[in-house]
Amino acid sequence: MNIGTASRQSRLPVKTIRYYEEIGLVRPLRGDNGYREFSQADLERLKFLQRSRSLGFSIEECRDLLSLYEDTNRASADVKAITCQKIQEVDRKIAELKSLKRVLLEMVEACHGDDRPDCPIMDDLSGRERTHGGKQH
Question: Where would I find the HTH merR-type domain in this sequence (predicted)?
């Protein structure tokens, strides 16, 4: 199949498929005309990559997972370990986002949100101390 068909069936943009080929994640054959010819196995790899990337796995993690996917003697413990690491990363990102939300909420609560130019949010973003009536707080 050509790259357009592979793109539609894997739900990956053509540009992404070319990138995956460039970094060695897929290796389609080249026909006599020089065009890429994707096999069913290539399509399965692309679908695997699409799903893995949609779950947040990095390119290197996908490389490791693909290696395990193709190894019929793999230990499921190896796959589970990579997935557990991803869960820890997701938990860390959730904690960071919750902290960010708290800071933003504090900024919003400190702002009157009226017609006056004095704005604690702008003061915070600029690194200035808040002023109120000419006095610093």
Answer: 1-68
Residues forming a β-bridge with 29 = 37
Please give the structure tokens belonging to residue 64: 């490791």
| CATH fit for domain 1-56, picks 3.40.50.10470, 3.90.980.10, 2.102.10.10, 1.10.1660.10 | 1.10.1660.10
Its pTM stands at: 0.77
Task: Output the tens digit of pLDDT for each of the chain's 137 residues.
Answer: 999 999 999 999 999 999 999 999 999 999 889 899 999 999 999 999 999 999 999 999 999 999 999 999 999 999 999 999 999 999 999 999 999 999 999 999 999 888 888 898 999 899 876 555 544 54
